[in-house]
Amino acid sequence: MTGRRYLIAGNWKMHGRLQDGTALAQALAEKLGPNGDPRFEILVCPPATILSAVSAVGEKTALLTGGQDCHAAPQGAHTGDIAAEMLADAGAGYVIVGHSERRQNHAETSAQVKGKAAAALRAGLKAIVCVGETREQRDAGQAAEIVAAQVAGSVPEGATADNCVLAYEPVWAIGTGLTPTIADIAAMHSMIREKLRGLVASPEAVRILYGGSVKASNAAEILAIDDVDGALVGGASLDAGSFWAIAQACR
Ligand code: PEP
After folding, report:
1. How far apart are CA 184 and CA 143, in angstroms?
2. Residue 1 has pLDDT above 80, yes or no
3. What is the pTM of this model?
4. Could you give the domains of the chain?
């Protein structure tokens, strides 16, 4: 971590109704206040149904909000989908694209993820582009190759450190309590940084998050890795105390 401010991002997935979602956001907003913390930024990505309300709670504070997915088009006949412009309209500053649950459950390809990330940039949002290998791919020794191909195929044209964040999330580490070794995370993040050198301007300034079973007890050693610039957190982001404890592990 050299000169990059940590981003601690919470992916609430399909959790959160109006009352508990706004209460969780309120608790974080109170901790952050208007000025936040110089070490890290805190982002929450609630379900789209409560994004406006959560954004309103964070409005006069340093709490950032984002969507969990977007469509590539700005509008149209796409029942059930949400345009990046709609997320911006609801107060979002970020959107997660290519989460493994989207890649797996909705068969999203890297080309589609790239289209979504481009839509985020068009709408003035920052894209969090997720990549990560499955257990089978890691066991077959293909992890680096798979992740490199996902990075090359998913990062949109025009991506910069200001509008794009990468998130390395091994599929087998998400929601399982399992994490790669510190050496494996370091090797993957360094490979992703190297890959970005041929893809974006100012690759050294792009933040690369780690995601997959991050919790208060393992955050410090993960966030201490050179090319780890924050965390994408699922389960532990649903409790303000646990999520805040992860942020406190930032150096
Ligand atoms: C995620 O879904 O992005 C994630 C990292 O989940 P968890 O922290 O629960 O493993």
Report:
1. 10
2. no
3. 0.98
4. 36-135+142-248 (3.20.20.70)
